[in-house]
Every structure is written in structure tokens, then in C-alpha cells.
Write a structure and sequence with these properties.
By secondary structure, the chain is an alpha/beta fold. The chain has a single domain (5-207), classed as 3-Layer(aba) Sandwich (Rossmann fold), CATH 3.40.50. The chain is 54% helix and 13% strand. The chain has 9 helices and 5 strands; from the N terminus they run E-H-E-H-H-E-H-H-E-H-H-E-H-H. Helix 4 packs antiparallel against helix 5 (112-123). Bound molecules: thymidine-5'-diphosphate.
Length: 213
């Protein structure tokens, strides 16, 4: 069976974790060994880094933020992603390197090139086979996520910042159609799931033929 690394990305509240769970369930039912994971914070050290980034009012510079997200990613790749892929498992991640390109590189103006370079160092060049971008108006997503007081340090940023994040995802996806799939996240979860399966070559029609990513 083909090893896959699929990542879900998008603005806050776009339904990434639901899609990760749905895809994991479908693939597992087909007999695949699936690992689900997320960023930031999927490892023990990553959980500490996540706290620094999201739960503490530290006023980190965008560059510091980028280093920390990438430190979390290095550990994540080392402890979770690489071992699972090497063992022939399918890995599904809620966020990965594109979040750094978009949140830090594009929306925080650190620069996309620098974000890509740091990502390459952090991941050792381990890129996903497919990144699904769940596109949504961030005003809708932030509302879905609940009250302002409960928001983390990044969710608290201005709507204008989150609009830039959305544009960043779309900008990137347009330039990488072979590895990115953009879906309208206003659609029901089941419809989105079906669209993901189609792209992976696992939808009804494709399954009979070649299919794939
Ligand atoms: P999380 O609570 O996981 O949010 P979500 O449910 O939206 O995924 O918080 C992750 C936050 O960190 C989110 O606001 C996006 C941000 N982030 C970055 O800015 N850069 C990154 O590289 C990553 C992985 C996340």
C-alpha cells in the first residue's frame, strides 16, 4: 500500500481536525495503518513550545515565533512523522510547514523565502504528498471557535491579520496545484471528506482506475 503524508491547513475554525478524523476513520476502515498528529505541540517538548507560543503573553517577534514553530516541527518530524512514514504508515497532520510560510512568512512579513528555508532545515526536506487547504472567511472561523477571551495569542490578532493568512494560503495553493487542494470549508464535512477522497484517488469513480494524490 502506498505511503501517504497528508496535511490539513486553513484559518482558525476551518474544520481541519474534523477532516483529519474523518479521513483517518475511512483509511483505517480500508485497512491502512494511520497516524494522526498536529502542530504545534504533538511531542512532549513541543507541548512546552506550544505553551510559549500560544498561552503566554510574551510579545515574541515574528522571527522568534518562526524559530519556535520550526523547533516544534523538527521534534515532530523526528519523533512522530518520520518514524511513522518509515514504518509504512499513513500520516495525517492538522497543520505543518505551510502554516509557518503563511502565518509567519506571509502574514507577519518575515518573508516567505526565509520561512521556506527554515522549514527545509526543520523538516530535512520532508514535504507532504498533499496539503488540503480548507478555505474560509476568518470572521466565520473565529466566531465558530468561540469568545474572544478564550482565544490564544495568535487567534487574538486582528481580523486583518487573519485575512492576510487566508490570502496567504490561497496564494501558495495557486502556485502549487500539484501538491495543494483548496476546498470551500463552508461545505458540510461529509462533502469535504468526499472531495479529499476523490483527490487521493479513493472516491467511488477513481478507485476503479489509477487515481492518487
Ligand atoms: P491551534 O490551537 O492548534 O489552532 P487551530 O485549531 O486553528 O489549528 O493553534 C495553532 C495556532 O498556531 C494557529 O493560530 C496557527 C498558528 N501557527 C502558526 O502561526 N505557525 C505555524 O507554523 C503553526 C504550525 C501554527
Amino acid at each position: 500500500m502506498k505511503t501517504r503524508f497528508v496535511v490539513f491547513e486553513g484559518v482558525e475554525g476551518s474544520g481541519k481536525s474534523t477532516q483529519v478524523q474523518m479521513l483517518a476513520a475511512t483509511l483505517a476502515a480500508r485497512g491502512e495503518d494511520v497516524v494522526t498528529t498536529f502542530e504545534p505541540g504533538a511531542t512532549k517538548s513541543g507541548a512546552v513550545i506550544r505553551e510559549l507560543l500560544l498561552d503566554m503573553p510574551l510579545s515574541l517577534t515574528p522571527m522568534t515565533e518562526m524559530f519556535l514553530f520550526c523547533a516544534d516541527r523538527t521534534q515532530h518530524v523526528h519523533e512522530v512523522v518520520r518514524p511513522a512514514l518509515d514504518a509504512g504508515k499513513t500520516v495525517l497532520s492538522d497543520r505543518y510547514e505551510l502554516s509557518t510560510v503563511v502565518y509567519q512568512g506571509y502574514a507577519s512579513a518575515v518573508g516567505v523565502d526565509l520561512a521556506e528555508r527554515l522549514n527545509d532545515l526543520a523538516t530535512g526536506g520532508l514535504h507532504p504528498d498533499l496539503t488540503v487547504v480548507l478555505d474560509l472567511d476568518p470572521a466565520v472561523g473565529l466566531n465558530r471557535n468561540g469568545a474572544h477571551e478564550r482565544r490564544d495569542q495568535i487567534e487574538r490578532r486582528t481580523l486583518e491579520f487573519h485575512q492576510r493568512v487566508r490570502r496567504g494560503f490561497l496564494w501558495w495553493a495557486e502556485r502549487h496545484p500539484e501538491t495543494c487542494l483548496v476546498l470551500d470549508a463552508l461545505q458540510p464535512p461529509e462533502v469535504l471528506h468526499e472531495q479529499v477522497l476523490q483527490r487521493l484517488g479513493l472516491g467511488g469513480a477513481e478507485e476503479a482506475g489509477e487515481g492518487g494524490l
